[in-house]
Amino acid sequence: MSVATGTARWYAPRNITINKVEGFLGTAGSGSATTFATLINGSSSRTDSISAGATTSSTTGLSISVSDGQYLTVNITAIGTSAADLSVKFYYT
Questions:
Q1: pLDDT of residue 1
Q2: Backbone angles phi and psi of 23, in degrees to 5
Q3: What is the pLDDT of residue 64?
Q4: Which terminus of the chain faces fewer neighbouring Cβ atoms within 10 Å, N or C?
Q5: How far apart are alpha carbons 34 and 28 in whole angstroms?
Q6: Which pLDDT does position 74 carry in this prediction?
Q7: What does pTM read for this prediction?
């Protein structure tokens, strides 16, 4: 895994509100956190991290509006040593 700009897009099927973001690593990193940024239509919305030595993170209580047809991408902005296989899950209403 390396620092990377996300290219895969997920398009909102309707107006939605993201209320939770979870991050998962297949292999925990060491030394420093693995961080990832969520972008809406290419503009940074928020940054989350998975602590060194951990494989999951969860942020709840969010209220991020995404309009019908807007898209999400995820950039990997920092990587803990040996961290691998990042997955991100968004919950919305």
A1: 81
A2: -120, 145
A3: 97
A4: C
A5: 9
A6: 97
A7: 0.91
Q: Whole-angstrom Cα distance, residue 14 to residue 27? A: 34
Close Cβ partners of 6 (under 8 Å, ≥ 6 residues apart):
39, 73, 74, 75, 76
CA dihedral 85, 60, 46, 29 (to 10 degrees): -30
Q: Report the DSSP beta bridge partners of residue 11.
A: 71
Residue 82 burial (CB count, 10 A)? 12
**DSSP code for 4:** B
DSSP 30: B
Q: Cβ contacts of residue 43 below 8 Å, gap of 6+? A: none
Q: Phi/psi at 82 (nearest 5 deg)?
A: 70, 5
> Which letter does DSSP use for residue 32 in this model?
S
Per-residue pLDDT at 2: 87
Q: What is the pLDDT of residue 37?
A: 97
Q: Which residues of the chain have pLDDT under 70?
A: none
